[in-house]
């Protein structure tokens, strides 16, 4: 739904967190995204599904600004990603996005507590404020008992919950998750998704989750299907 400016002329809705038009990406000669149009409203929670190789991870990487589009326009969090310098894209990512991957990507040598503190430290937070925020996130994710263990020494489900906590600790506006439960059994996957959905809903985070799991998709507002580099349906 577009807003009008009083003259009846519609303009892009300010609350669009993601606004992509005809976005194309190729790896060399091989097209991976063949003209993606996608609008996502603030606070919306969407699932991206589709067969292996259809371009789901590529789409997330473009949204995160780690991969540049070859063509089209992409506005994310009100910023024209194509016009930003690398340094500014990195800052936007650090301050206003969170990312969760299939295998967590925690730093194995650091404890879970230290992993969760990291984004706040990188953003220049004061230690006196970081401590309580980390403790509260650890509690919410039921990780208090294992908070002092190194990330390499916890279960897959615990590591993924910590990855969710690390991605959300700075209350990003946009969370991008690439098969966050893909490496887990059903029980562990459910606890991770519950933790993720509870936190995202409470924080009002806009969520894009790539998943193969219909049960994960069932938690979300909208399903976007991809085939061969295009959105379908
Ligand atoms: N770095 C790369 N260099 C060249 N081709 C790539 C690269 N990354 C992905 N591709 C190709 O681009 C297409 C889309 O890949 P992508 O990783 O986005 O798929 P996906 O939908 O995430 O698949 P999966 O479900 O297996 O994770 C595939 O054909 C893939 O082989
Ligand atoms: Mg992928």
Kindly describe this structure.
With 233 residues, the chain is of the alpha/beta class. It has one domain: 3-Layer(aba) Sandwich (Rossmann fold), CATH 3.40.50.300. Helices cover 34% and strands 27% of the residues. It contains seven helices and twelve strands. It has helices spanning 56-64, 86-96, 112-122, 127-140, 156-168, 186-203, 214-217; strands at 3-4, 10-11, 16-27, 30-41, 45-49, 71-76, 79-80, 97-100, 174-178, 206-210, 222-227, 230-232. Strands 8-9-10-5-11-12 form a six-stranded mixed β-sheet. A hairpin with a 5-residue loop joins strand 1 and strand 2. The longest helix has 18 residues, at 186-203. 40% of the residues are buried. Mean pLDDT is 92; it is low at 1-11. The protein binds adenosine-5'-triphosphate (ATP) and magnesium ion (MG). Magnesium ion (MG) binds at residues 56-57, 178. Adenosine-5'-triphosphate (ATP) is lined by residues 27, 30, 32, 52-58.
Task: Assign the CATH architecture.
Answer: 3-Layer(aba) Sandwich
Largest beta-sheet characterization = 6 strands, mixed
Strand line-up in the sheet with most strands: 8-9-10-5-11-12
Question: Helix count, per DSSP?
Answer: 7
N-to-C order of helices and strands: EEEEEHEEHEHHHEHEHEE
Bound molecules: adenosine-5'-triphosphate, magnesium ion
Compute the CA-based radius of gyration.
Answer: 18 Å
Helix content: 25-40%
- CATH H-level homologous superfamily name: P-loop containing nucleotide triphosphate hydrolases
How confident is the prediction overall: mean pLDDT?
92
Q: CATH fold name, please?
A: Rossmann fold
Q: How many E-type strands?
A: 12
